[in-house]
Amino acid sequence: MTPADRTSRALGTVLGSAVGDALGAPFEFGPEGAFSARFPKPGGGGEMCGGGGWDPGEATDDTQMAVLVGESLLECGGLELADIFRRFQRWAVSGPKDIGLQTEDVLTSGEPWDFAAALHFQVNQRAAGNGALMRAATSAVYFAGGGTEATMDAGRRIAALTHGDRAAWEGTALFHELVRVALSGGDPLDALPGALDLVHPDHRARYTAVLAPDWHPDQATEFNGAVWPCLGSAVWALRTTDSYEGAVRAAVDLGGDTDTVAAVTGGLAGAVYGADAIPSRWTEPLQVPLPGFDGRVLRAAELVGLAERLAR
Ligand SMILES: [Mg+2]
């Protein structure tokens, strides 16, 4: 593998996740099969259609938060959790079109960054949503070079800023490791058994079930806004298709939390197939507004620049 391949995979991770997010957003909470009913033929065009309050190509909270994480890592020169939390707070109070309930509660609670999520979890006992997994593309690229332990540890810590449930940390850590494997030219599907060995024992069985080769999203025991079926569906979409486009089409077609399932799928598929595999008709209209940050709106070229710096 050449360094160019690695760079293309890193760009593919960040760009691929953002494209999946924007592609899936108009179909959120829709039924299974809605996407392929409207766009039956892969490569047909017009898929970045907007709707449901989203402009064509507009990315949602998944990508907005991923950008905030990535910019914090670069500007701080490493993991400064308090800084990421401050950026999240500034964004959360600036009226993003979409924000997870769990995430909003924690970020606006007024509690200190290092136990806001834990306090929320203590009271609510529910924090296994996919809201930390969805924003992990940038940190997965940044920490990939540090090896398995370092990247999984960072994934857990960033997840824990908003999600007090260890299930959310472990799913995010798994995503980090799968991206690391892909960026180094390996097959993330082959790496699953080894990665599952590194999941906290209390959570291993549940992830082993949803990441099994014969698991299908129809077998999910929760809505795919939960972290387990979300990651399981993304890996299923990667496993059962042979292209970036095929994988994200399959993800959006599952219905439910389509922007996030497609963002996670798109991050993995982008890491496997590289940035060149992402159709330009999907990257061209891409736009990532950053509420709370002086009206900035990132386009694909800026996401590529961010990913290049994260991959260094
Ligand atoms: Mg979203």
Question: How would you characterize the overall build of this protein?
Answer:
The chain is globular. It is mostly helical. It has helices at residues 3-24, 34-38, 61-76, 81-92, 101-107, 116-124, 137-143, 148-160, 166-183, 192-197, 201-210, 227-239, 244-252, 258-273, 280-283, 300-311; strands at 287-289, 297-299. It binds magnesium ion. Magnesium ion binds next to α3 and α14.
Strand order of the largest sheet: 1-2
Q: What is the N-to-C order of secondary-structure elements (H for helix, E for strand)?
A: HHHHHHHHHHHHHHHEEH
Small molecules held by this entry? magnesium ion
Identify low-pLDDT runs.
none
- In percent, how helical is the residue content? 55-70%
What kind of assembly state do the chains in view correspond to?
Answer: single chain
Structural class: mainly alpha
Number of strands: 2
* Beta-strand share of residues: under 5%
Largest sheet: 2 strands, antiparallel
Mean pLDDT over the full residue set: 97
GO molecular function: hydrolase activity; metal ion binding
InterPro entries: ADP-ribosylglycohydrolase (IPR050792), Ribosyl_crysJ1 (IPR005502), Ribosyl_crysJ1_sf (IPR036705)
Binding site for Mg(2+): 60-62, 257, 259-260
Keywords: Hydrolase, Magnesium, Metal-binding
Provide key terms for this protein:
single chain, two-stranded antiparallel ribbon, 16 helices, 2 strands, globular, binds magnesium ion, Ribosylglycohydrolase
